[in-house]
Each structure stands twice: as structure tokens, then as C-alpha cells.
């Protein structure tokens, strides 16, 4: 493995398994599609990350990503997902992670020490993350059950309404201040996650929702896959005010590789160079500090820049960072040490 193994804030590989696009054995042996498999992980120095368990919206009411190539767009939030449907997808998501581990594709990790031990090896460290908590019940029995199965990170919402609060829409240009904050149930969910030492992911929350988390949570504020609103004024990105809140909490942000959240014009098109990613990197380092910036690719869930393409292309990003003046110490922090720092603080504080 590389001297700078990448621990990544977010990927959607599990959804590909749940949809039947790939098998766990295929991920272990190599695929001819998508962004992630074990051979490409070894080639690209991808040491692992948060593997999202996500419930897709019904097909006829899913987000219309083709709208995101227009100069301006405002895609309505999808309808809420019924709890029973969410429960089925989420249960199968945990089973899919077990299948990946059984096939030798990933190593399941529950602690920062587990991750640190796996990173130097030719294997993918996988930490269970729930993106959108529609399957969590009001008395949190399932949350406790899934924590026992390895759940260590949870995003209360994806970009749609839930009983916990509303996600931010896919809107450009737009402020992330797009609706009300967390509901009473959502605030209780944050407190329960704090009690279990489950990291709260702020990505996809609107501005008022993030403010509510900041007022309640005793853990560092973390956005696993978000970018700088000052560079790309998309509703999904973080304003400087939000970044300062994250800095004050000693949290961090994982840079999202999704083209629409990187490009200043907000287009979901991949034909651009890494200079735009470097602009986000510079702004985040300047605003947050060098200890609070990492990577949060959104591999297998987004259209990424052509120079990267998939996890085998991560060395191209690291080379661009090096040419940009990033020394070995900062490179190690950005690729994995900052994540380990925040996770140790979150999971054991």
C-alpha cells in the first residue's frame, strides 16, 4: 500500500450490491464497472472508509440528476420513504457488509484502532454508516441493535423529508438555508447517537438542522462528504459560517468528489481538471485548519472528475496535491490521520 493510504468519508458501494448490480465476490475479485473493488483499491491506495447504507427513493420520484446540467436548477425533495421499506433496505445493507467481509473484499472495523491496523494492509477497512435514518424507530431499539452490529456513523437525513428533519435539496445556486431544522424526534436522535458514540454526519442536513445538531451534540461536528459554498454555491455545500462552527467543535469535513458540488457552475459534468478540487482544498484548509480536512469521495454515488474516474485514480489527486505544495505531513493528515483523530475523539469522548 501507499505511504498515504486514503480513508474516505463516504461511498455507496453497498447500494450496488442491494440493487443486484454486483456481488460481494465480484467486489473481491474485480469489477468492470463502478468506482470500487478490491484490486483497484490496492492499486489506488484506497485504505477504506465509511460504507453507506442508503435507502433509495422510489424510482418514479427519484432525484432527476439530468436536471443538474442546467445553469440553474431546483429539484424538489423526493417523497418520504415508508419506515417498513426503509427497514428492509437497511437490514439488507448490514447483511451486504457482512457478505463483503465474508468474501474477503473488506475488513469490518468498529474502532479507530481497527482502522489504523487495516490501513497499511492490502485490504479495505469498512465502517458501517447509515445515510438517512428512516429505518430507525422512535424508541431507538434498532439503533442499539445496529450499533451492536458495527454502526458507527449516521446521517439523520438524506435530501428528502423525514420524521427527524428535512434534507437540503439539490438546488443551484442556493444557500443551504432551505427549510426548518430538526424535529423534536430528530433532536432526541442526536442525543441517543451521542450516548452510543455514533458519529453524526451533517452532510445533506439543511442549515437550521446543522444549527440544531451544533446546539445539542457534545461531539465534534463532521460533514463526511461536503464542499465549500464559497467556491461552488450549491445548497449541498457548507457556508463559511458553518465551517467556522465545525472548526470551533474541532470536527472536520471530507471533500466530496461529486462534480456538481465541486464546479463553480454547479453542473453534474465530469470534464474538468483537479484545479477546482484544489480551490476547495485551499478554502477548507484556510477556514478549518490543516487538522480538519479529509476526503469524502461519494464513490459509486456520484459523477467524479475525469482525472480521478475511480479509486484507482486516487494517486492522480495525491500527485496534484503534492504539486500544489502539500508536504508529506499534511498529505498524511488529509488522507487518513485527520479522520483517525476525529473518530478517536468522537467514539471515545
TrEMBL record:
Q: Which GO molecular function entries does the Swiss-Prot or TrEMBL record give?
A: metallodipeptidase activity
Taxonomic placement: Bacteria, Pseudomonadati, Pseudomonadota, Alphaproteobacteria, Rhodobacterales
- Which species expresses this protein natively? Sagittula stellata (strain ATCC 700073 / DSM 11524 / E-37)
Matches recorded under Gene3D superfamilies: Metal-dependent hydrolases
One example of a Gene Ontology biological process annotation: proteolysis
Q: What is this protein called?
A: Dipeptidase
Amino acid at each position: 500500500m501507499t505511504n498515504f493510504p486514503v480513508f474516505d468519508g463516504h461511498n455507496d458501494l453497498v447500494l450496488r450490491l442491494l440493487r443486484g448490480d454486483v456481488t460481494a465476490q465480484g467486489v473481491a475479485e474485480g469489477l468492470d464497472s463502478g468506482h470500487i473493488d478490491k484490486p483497484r483499491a490496492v492499486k489506488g491506495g484506497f485504505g477504506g472508509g465509511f460504507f453507506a447504507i442508503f435507502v433509495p427513493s422510489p424510482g418514479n420520484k427519484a432525484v432527476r440528476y439530468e436536471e443538474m446540467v442546467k445553469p440553474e436548477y431546483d429539484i424538489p425533495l423526493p417523497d418520504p420513504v415508508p419506515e417498513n421499506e426503509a427497514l428492509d433496505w437497511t437490514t439488507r445493507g448490514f447483511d451486504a457488509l457482512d457478505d463483503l467481509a465474508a468474501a474477503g473484499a473488506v475488513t469490518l472495523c468498529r474502532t479507530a484502532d481497527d482502522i489504523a491496523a487495516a490501513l497499511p494492509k492490502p485490504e479495505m477497512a469498512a465502517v458501517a454508516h447509515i445515510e438517512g435514518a428512516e429505518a430507525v424507530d422512535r424508541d431507538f431499539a434498532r439503533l442499539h441493535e445496529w450499533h451492536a452490529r458495527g454502526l458507527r456513523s449516521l446521517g439523520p437525513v438524506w435530501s428528502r423529508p423525514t420524521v427527524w428533519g428535512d434534507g437540503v435539496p439539490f438546488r443551484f445556486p442556493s444557500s443551504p438555508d432551505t427549510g426548518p431544522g430538526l424535529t423534536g424526534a430528530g433532536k432526541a436522535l442526536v442525543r441517543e447517537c451521542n450516548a452510543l458514540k455514533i458519529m453524526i454526519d451533517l452532510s445533506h442536513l439543511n442549515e437550521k438542522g446543522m444549527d440544531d445538531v451544533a446546539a445539542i451534540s457534545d461531539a465534534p461536528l463532521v460533514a463526511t462528504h461536503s464542499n465549500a459554498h464559497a467556491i461552488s454555491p450549491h445548497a449541498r455545500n457548507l457556508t463559511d459560517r458553518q465551517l467556522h462552527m465545525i472548526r470551533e467543535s474541532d470536527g472536520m469535513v471530507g471533500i466530496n468528489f461529486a462534480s456538481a458540488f465541486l464546479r463553480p457552475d454547479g453542473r453534474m459534468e465530469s470534464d474538468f481538471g483537479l484545479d477546482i478540487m484544489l480551490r476547495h482544498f485551499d478554502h477548507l484548509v484556510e477556514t478549518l485548519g490543516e487538522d480538519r480536512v479529509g476526503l469524502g469521495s461519494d464513490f459509486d454515488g456520484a459523477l467524479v472528475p475525469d482525472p480521478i474516474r475511480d479509486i484507482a485514480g486516487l494517486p492522480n489527486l495525491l500527485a496534484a496535491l503534492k504539486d500544489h505544495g502539500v508536504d508529506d505531513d499534511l498529505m498524511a493528515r488529509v488522507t487518513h490521520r485527520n479522520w483517525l483523530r476525529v473518530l478517536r475523539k468522537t467514539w471515545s469522548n
